[in-house]
Design a protein that fits this description.
The protein contains 16 helices and 16 strands. It is an alpha/beta fold and 507 residues long. The protein binds zinc ion (ZN).
C-alpha cells in the first residue's frame, strides 16, 4: 500500500513538471536579497507561493498603492500563464496607530474605519482591473495565531517580555540586516520604548492602552506590533518558506528585515527565496505619500482617466525605476491607448465584415505575429520588463495598421494574419489587463468624452459634414476644403470612404 502511494506521488510530480512551459524556466528575477539578477528556480516544480504586504486601512489608496498592487497582480498572472500553480496572499493591516488616531479623531470604532477602507480599496482595485489575491487575511482575525507565534519566539529565546511588552531580541540573529545590507551596529530602530534591551529591538506585542483595541493573551493584554502579522499570515497560509515576497522599497527596512528575523527565528528555514521590491511613485522628486499630502488617490485618477490609461502609465516604468508622477504622462498615455483601441476596432470591423472569406496565409507576416508572444515572454522574463512589453505591442500595432491599409496583400491573407494577431494578443492582455475592453465601446466613449470636454456638439459636426457634401455637389471645392479645415481646428478629422464621410478625432 505504501509502495503504491509513493509511486502515485512520483507519477503526479512528473506530470506537474511536464506542465511547466519551457520559457518560464528562463525567467530572471532581480532578487533584492542578493542584489543581483537570478535565474528563477521555484521551491517546488510548479507550485508557487507569493506574499505581498498590502495597505494599512485608514485612508484612501493612492496611485503609489495602485502601482504596487498592479505590479504584483501582473507578476502573479504571468506566473500562472507560465503554467505555475500560484497561491498569492496579500494582507490588510487593520490594527495600527494610524487607524487608532483616525478613529479617535472621527469618534468611531477602529473596526468601522478599517472595514470602510477595506471595502473602498477593494472597489478601487477592481476598477483598475487588479484581481483579488487568493487569500486576503486581516490581522484582527488572526490574533490567536499571532499570540501563539509570539509565545514560540519567547520559548526559542528570541522574544522577551519587559513591562508588559514583548520585544524581539535583534542581537540574537546573526545575519540581521541581510536584506537591506545594513550592519546591526548602524541600526537604530525608529520605535522608541523604554522596555528595550537594545535600541535595535522591535515590538512584537504592545501593551494594552486605555481607549485602544487590545486582546487577552495567556499573560497580558495588548495588541500586535506591525511586523509580526506578515510572518504569522505567511506561515499560516503559505507555510515556512515562500518563493516570492515583496512590496515597495520603502518598507524593506525595517518591515521586511524584521519579517525575515521573526520568520527565520521561528522556523530556522529561509523565509523567502526571492525578494521583489518595486520602486516608489515620486512627485517632484519626493515620494508620493499620505504624510506629505502630495498624493493622487485611485478614485481621483479614475475621475479623469480610465483603467487602461492608468495602467499604461504605470506599465511605462520598470519595477526598479522610480515613477515620476506628472499629469502630462496621463495625457500622452491617453492618446496612445486610444490609438491602440482604434486599431483594434478597425481590425474587428474588418474581420466581422469578412468572416465568410476563406483564409489565406502570408508567411512573412505570420512570422511577425508568431514572434509577438515570444517577444512578450522574453520581455517578462527580464525581471518583468513592462516597458519592453509595451514596446513590443507598439511595434506589432504599427505592423497591423500597415497591413490593414496595404493594397498589395489580398484580403484573405489579411484575415488569417489579423485573426491570429487577435488570438495571440488576448493571451497577452489577459496577463497585463490592458487593451482587453470592447474596442468599439472604448473608441465611442473616448470620442464622446473628447467632444464633451471641448464642448463640441455631435449635431454641429453632422451639420458641417452636410454643408461640405452640398458644396462638393455644387463643385464649390474651396468651400468644402474650408469646412474640412474648420473642423480640423477643432481636432475633428474627416475621411471620405465609398460615398460616406467618417469623422474621427485627431490625436
Ligand atoms: Zn509585511
Amino acid at each position: 500500500m505504501l509502495m503504491q502511494k509513493t509511486s502515485e506521488v512520483i507519477t503526479e510530480n512528473k506530470n506537474q513538471e511536464k506542465k511547466v512551459q519551457n520559457w518560464s524556466l528562463k525567467l530572471k528575477i532581480y532578487n533584492t536579497l542578493s542584489n543581483s539578477m537570478e535565474d528563477f528556480v521555484p521551491l517546488e516544480p510548479n507550485k508557487l507561493k507569493m506574499y505581498a504586504c498590502w495597505i494599512t486601512v485608514y485612508d484612501e489608496a493612492h496611485i503609489g498603492h495602485a502601482r504596487q498592487a498592479m505590479s504584483f497582480d501582473i507578476i502573479r498572472n504571468y506566473l500562472k500563464y507560465s503554467w505555475y500553480d500560484v497561491t498569492y496572499v496579500r494582507n490588510y493591516t487593520d490594527i495600527d496607530d494610524k487607524i487608532i488616531n483616525r478613529a479617535i479623531k472621527e469618534d468611531k470604532e477602529c473596526s468601522s474605519i478599517s472595514e470602510y477602507y477595506i471595502n473602498e480599496s477593494k472597489n478601487d482595485l477592481k476598477r483598475i482591473k487588479v484581481n483579488e489575491a487568493d487569500v486576503e487575511p486581516k490581522v484582527t482575525e488572526h490574533i490567536p495565531e499571532i499570540i501563539k507565534y509570539i509565545e514560540t519566539l519567547i520559548t526559542k529565546g528570541y522574544g522577551y517580555v519587559s513591562n508588559g511588552e514583548v520585544l524581539f531580541d535583534v542581537l540574537k540573529v546573526e545575519d540581521y540586516g541581510k536584506l537591506s545590507n545594513r550592519k546591526v551596529e548602524d541600526l537604530i530602530s525608529n520605535e522608541n520604548s523604554p522596555n528595550k534591551r537594545n535600541q535595535v529591538d522591535f515590538s512584537l506585542r504592545k501593551p494594552a492602552k486605555e481607549g485602544e483595541p487590545s486582546w487577552e493573551s495567556p499573560r497580558w493584554k495588548g495588541r500586535p506590533g506591525w511586523h509580526i502579522e506578515c510572518s504569522v499570515l505567511a506561515n499560516k497560509y503559505l507555510w515556512e518558506s515562500i518563493d516570492i515576497h515583496g512590496w515597495w522599497l520603502d518598507i524593506m527596512f525595517p518591515h521586511h528585515e524584521n519579517e525575515i528575523a521573526q520568520s527565520e527565528a521561528f522556523s530556522w528555514k529561509q523565509f523567502s527565496k526571492y525578494w521583489v521590491h518595486n520602486w516608489m511613485v515620486n512627485v517632484n522628486g519626493q515620494k508620493m505619500g499620505k504624510s506629505l499630502g502630495n498624493f493622487l488617490t485611485i478614485k481621483d485618477a479614475l475621475n479623469d482617466y480610465n483603467a487602461d490609461i492608468i495602467r499604461y502609465v504605470i506599465l511605462s516604468y520598470n519595477l526598479a525605476t522610480p515613477m515620476d508622477f506628472n499629469p502630462e504622462m496621463f495625457k500622452i498615455a491617453s492618446k496612445r491607448v486610444y490609438y491602440f483601441y482604434k486599431s483594434l476596432n478597425m481590425i474587428d470591423d474588418f474581420l466581422s465584415q469578412n468572416k465568410d472569406v476563406a483564409w489565406g496565409k502570408d508567411q512573412l507576416i505570420w512570422e511577425q505575429i508568431h514572434n509577438l508572444e515570444s517577444d512578450f515572454v522574453n520581455a517578462m522574463n527580464e525581471n518583468f520588463n513592462f516597458p519592453k512589453v509595451l514596446g513590443a505591442l507598439s511595434n506589432i500595432f504599427s505592423e497591423m495598421n500597415e497591413l490593414m491599409t496595404s493594397k498589395k496583400i489580398p484580403d484573405q491573407d489579411k484575415i488569417y494574419t489579423l485573426s491570429s494577431f487577435r488570438e495571440k494578443l488576448t493571451k497577452i492582455t489577459d496577463v497585463i489587463r490592458i487593451f482587453d475592453d470592447d474596442p468599439k465601446e472604448y473608441v465611442d466613449s473616448y470620442k464622446k468624452n473628447f467632444l464633451k470636454e471641448k464642448n463640441i456638439d455631435d449635431g454641429f459636426i453632422t451639420e458641417k459634414i452636410n454643408q461640405r457634401n452640398q458644396a462638393k455637389i455644387k463643385k464649390e471645392y474651396t468651400t468644402a476644403d474650408q469646412i474640412r479645415e474648420e473642423l480640423k481646428e477643432l481636432w475633428i478629422g474627416l475621411q471620405d470612404k465609398g460615398g460616406e464621410t467618417d469623422r474621427d478625432i485627431i490625436i
